[in-house]
Amino acid sequence: MSKKVYTDAVSALAGLLRDDMTVMAGGFGLCGIPENLIAAIKLSGVKGLTVISNNAGVDGFGLGQLLETKQIKKMISSYVGENKLFAQQFLSGELELEFNPQGTLAERIRAGGAGIPAFFTKTGVGTLVAEGKELREFDGETFVMERGLRADLAIVKAWKGDTEGNLIYRKTARNFNPMMAMAGKVTVAEVEQLVNVGTIDPDHVHTPGIFVQRIIEGVHEKRIEQRTTRKRD
User: Fold this and answer.
1) Shortest CA distance to 66 belongs to which of 56, 52, 79, 76?
2) What residue ranges do the domains of the chain occupy?
3) How far is Cα 54 from Cα 167, in angstroms, rounded to an integer?
4) Terminal CA-to-CA distance of the chain, rounded, Å?
5) Can you tell me the distance from the alpha carbon of 65 to that of 33, in angstroms, rounded to the nearest whole number?
6) pTM for the whole thing?
7) Which NCBIfam families is this protein grouped with (predicted)?
8) What confidence tens digit (pLDDT) does each residue in 169-214 have?
9) Regions of the chain where pLDDT drops below 50
């Protein structure tokens, strides 16, 4: 068995967690979130975390669990509208927020993983997003400089992975996960199906195993963020 494979989320994170570290957490809403690894971070009791994630889960699930225990000091996010506790902590001054347009957040993470320290974009020019940031003109238009993002630890969720850490994502889960896997100094992945190396067609790999240091096979609740139904006829 590959040295990358761990039996559970707690053992996979052993020796990696510490107070005041930066963590990237993949997912979009509750789709594609590394729910087992988030639960293990909660159990560890580490605090003062800066978490980079598109959103903060919902009350009581996903990253919302870490808000309940006040383990998160700062969020670097794009969308936080589904979490009432997040709003309460932010408005009371308990939680810092670095807000980003969604495309800008995605590109900041991608840039960090590619070794690009900064880039310029038109998004946010003339708004609060650009306050305190360098502005520069290109071809007569104004752009704002955004810094690339890196993390001490990236936790990601994939549909299938092999014992060397090669990953395949499905549908909407292929959102922030692939770029975060590249931008973490250490990346831990959880998958629904763990298979032997050589089983996955190389042409189907989304994240090459070189970016993944540890991997587990998890059991996933796959909770629905918002269930909308209509009455039967």
Assistant:
1) 56
2) 9-117+148-217
3) 20
4) 54
5) 13
6) 0.92
7) pcaI_scoA_fam
8) 999 889 899 999 999 999 999 999 999 999 999 999 999 999 999 9
9) none
What residues contact residue 54 under an 8 Å CB cut-off, 6+ apart? 27, 28, 29, 77, 78, 79, 102, 105, 175, 176
**Residues whose CB falls within 8 Å of the CB of residue 124, separated by 6 or more in sequence, listed in order:** 101, 104, 130, 144
Name the token pair of 218. Answer: 């998890």
Residue 165 — φ and ψ, nearest 5°?
A: 90, 5
Residue-level pLDDT at 233: 80
- Cα-to-chain-centroid distance, residue 230: 33
Q: What is the C-alpha to C-alpha distance for residues 77 and 55, in angstroms, rounded to an integer?
A: 6
Inter-residue contact 161 to 215 (CB < 8 Å): yes
DSSP 191-226: EEEEE-TT-S-GGG-SB-GGG-SEEEE-------S-
pLDDT for position 101: 95
Which pLDDT score, from 0 to 100, does residue 30 have? 86
Angle at 98 between CA 74 and CA 171, to 5 degrees: 90
Residue 64 parent element (H or E): helix 64-68
Beta bridge partners of 135: 144
